[in-house]
Amino acid sequence: MRNKILLSLLVLISVTTSILYLIPITPEEIYEQNKQASCGIFSTIVYSLNGEEHIWTANGSGFFRDNEGHFQTAAHCVTLIDVPKHKVVIKNSIFQVIVTLPNDTLRIYEAKLTGIDESIDVAILKVLDTSITKTHPVSMADMSTVHPGQMAYIIGVPMSLEFYGSISRATIGFVNRQVGETRIKSRIQLDCGSAPGSSGSPVFNSKGEVIGMIQTDVKSGADSKLSLAVPINLVDLERLKRGDVAIPSTGLSILDTDFPRYSSLEKFYEEDLTSLRSRLPGLSDLELRKLVLTSIGQATIITEIQNKNLKNQISVGDLILQIDGTAIFSGQDLGIYLHSKTKGEKVTLTIFKTANNRLEKVMVTLE
User: Fold this and answer.
1) 165 near 32, Cβ under 8 Å?
2) How far apart are CA 42 and CA 266, in angstroms?
3) Can you give the pLDDT at residue 337?
4) ∠ Cα 133 136 142 (to 5°)
5) CATH of domain 35-137
6) Are 59 and 40 in contact (CB under 8 A)?
């Protein structure tokens, strides 16, 4: 009898615990539970470009991932954007993180960058002050439970420090959203706009668990705003704590365009497959159709060649049509493909030579 009673109690406790886990908590509880886990980030980078010194600043939001001081934010909040990085000399980088202490006061600490994964726009930094013996990390959600229609909550620092610790509510409009020029194959769509400074903010589910990180704001029309978040399960925390997740490079700079750049390609509009076969022997109809589509739609044009081993095989102005047989219509396509590769691997590029209207296959060792 005694064993039956104990077994019944254990079953009751287990069922009660499961039910409590499924019950959403209030927005107030979500905020109180995670305000110490959320933080703000201010970045200052001094760099030299073409002999001139520049100062780049940015602010964003973030959240602690462990109790050792590691926090996550958007990579574009802590690294130079819209500049040719291979021509830049970094002279100094200063990262400051704003943290809520247990007594609800704010304190600023210096931090260091430990790793970046630009392919998903994520960076991990670590607080330098050794007096912080334990930070308050967020809890991770089971991403298989995230569905459109659910409520989400964002805690961040929109605009400036004056708005530190702001919480917003949104509805999940879609999961696994693919949109825009990004290498992120799937993002969470939210029905709220995100002000500058919100990048890097944690997105919580109704149980106060993180499902993603705010990456960008999407404007569509005068009154419509959407935000996109990077799913938390895409982030390799341990690898980023050790260093950058580097995407290998072909050693080529490219430019996406949505109009024909060369008169020789414009002629393809008026030519049928029979004519194309005679001009480009050895290509299948599928490859010829891809070539026409590339010339009419988006084209990936080579603008600079850093890989010295390719300078005798590829010219500025040539087009990248394929990599290992996979069609390439934009830098996004190329980045997605290279994300699964490592430095030193060999890939084969199908190049359209604009000088003689021929296709050539070029083997490239990734750098």
Assistant:
1) no
2) 48
3) 80
4) 140
5) 2.40.10.10
6) yes
